[in-house]
Model the fold of this input.
Amino acid sequence: METAGKAKGQGLKLAAMIGGATALLAVLFLFAPEEYSFYPRCLLHTLTGLQCPGCGGLRAAHQLLHGNVAAAFHYNPLLVLLSPLLAAFVIAAIGRETTGRTVPRLFKHPLWIWVLVGLLIAYGITRNLPLLRSGG
Ligand SMILES: [Zn+2]
Done:
C-alpha cells in the first residue's frame, strides 16, 4: 500500500514537472523575449553591459522552438550547441521516472561537472572579447 502511494506521488510529481515545463515552453514559444518585458533581465548585463554565459538564452530558446537555428546561434551559441545534450538529459530523466529503469548516464563521472564549469567560464570570457561579441 505504501509503495503504491509512493509511486502515485512520484507520478504526480513527474506530471507536475512535465506540465510546468510544457507551460513555460509554450509561453516562450508564444511570446518573444525581445518583445515582452515580463521575462527576467540579466543582472550582470544590466549592471556592467557584459554578457554572462546565459545571456541571450531565452531569445535563443525562443528561436530554437521556432526552428530558427541560425538566429538562435546568434543569440547564444553555447545553448544551441548544448541543447541536444540538455534534451537527452531531460528525456533520460523522464524515462527513468516513468519506467523506474536506470538509463545509462553518459557523463556520470564528476569530472564532467568541472568540464562544464570550465566551458561556461571560458565561454563567458570569450563572448565578451571585442572581436567575438555576439547576441546580447
Ligand atoms: Zn546574462
